[in-house]
Amino acid sequence: MDRIDGIRAFVAVVDAGSFTRAGERLGISNKLVSKYVAALEGQQGVTLLNRTTRALSLTPAGERYLTAARRVLAAVEELDAQAHAEEGALTGRLRITAPVAFGEMFATTLTRDFARAHPGIDIDLNLSDRYVDLAAEGFDLALRIGQLPDSSLIARRIGQTETWVVASPAYLAAHPRPDRPEDLRDHVNIRDSNAQNPGRAVFLIEGKAVSVPLPGRITVNSAQAVRRLVLEGEGVALIPSFVVARDVAEGRLERLLPGFVRPQLDIQALYLPRPFLPPRLTAYLDHLRMGLSPLLKAPRPDS
User: Fold this and answer.
1) What is the DSSP code string of 101-164?
2) How far is 11 from 155, CA to CA, in rounded Å?
């Protein structure tokens, strides 16, 4: 057995969660996947996976081996990419993670277009609002919105968006319209727990950045869920403009406090530092940046 085949099978089993799904990803039978992993364990002299009838889990040795295995596969893919780059063809696999709302509205369509243009690339797009560990979980790229914690990852800005304060006409008919950010303390705020600080928001008031509390009884970890609750008249919310721009333009929601500028949010692509960036990743980043530019020019109500 080629050791690279064993490493690739082992990583695929971990990522897919089963030998059967790993086989589907690799285009081979689950029996052959099992054979490759068993042979790899024999070569290493350790058990990498705990196998039961219901689940698979990594052994301590498997957890240590997984990080190195991912590095080996990344190096092999980079060598392949260099060879194919000279021929002008993009090949290999991309694993990408993106926030759910942003992924559903933009990343999925842009990724589909990229896949159509480059049939030699396999793409695994995972939509999740949690912050994944790129190295530990084997992702090539993470798309994130907003201020990011310091890390060793490389960040490339691919776009920007704003956060708008919005409410439905029905809610505003039953509650006084806020004139200043401080008025939000007297409203029902629907809060998104994906925000860095869901209970507060920063506004520019008379040229100074002021943090305003946002009291509320409902906090939810989804921008789309926040939008739905606001559309139903449950309260006021701060939400990325790309999520609600059409609702505002078509009158289902009203934008509030437009004169109090909030900091713009960067849309960033994060990836691990490496001496050679695979051409397929560079091409995907360029595709995202160019594709997002017209999409994020949201219609704006008169302020």
Assistant:
1) HHIIIIIHHHHHHHHHH-TTEEEEEEE-SS---HHHHT-SEEEEES-----SSEEEEEEEE-EE
2) 26
Cα–Cα distance, 302 to 221 (Å, whole number): 30
Residue listed under structure tokens 């089963």: 18
Task: Average the pLDDT over 62-88 and give the result.
Answer: 75
Please give the share of the chain, as a percent, with pLDDT higher than 70: 92
What span, in angstroms and rounded, lies between the C-alpha atoms of 126 and 16?
12
CB neighbour list of residue 150: distance below 8 Å, 6 or more residues apart: none
What is the rounded (10 degree) CA torsion for 73, 79, 84, 90?
A: 40
Residue 147, both tokens: 């201020």
Report CA dihedral (178, 179, 182, 185) to the nearest 10 degrees: -10
Identify whether the C-beta of residue 135 lies closer than 8 Å to the C-beta of residue 66.
no
Task: Give CA separation, 223 vs 53, 100, 193, in Å.
Answer: 38, 8, 9
Mind listing the pLDDT tens digit for each residue in 197-216? 889 998 988 888 889 999 99
Predicted confidence (pLDDT) per residue in 253-289, tens digit:
999 999 887 878 889 999 988 767 788 899 999 999 9
As a whole number of angstroms, the distance between CA 200 and CA 27 comes to: 49
Average pLDDT over residues 70-98: 76
Tokens 């709302």 locate to: 101
Mean pLDDT, to the nearest integer, of 244-252? Answer: 95
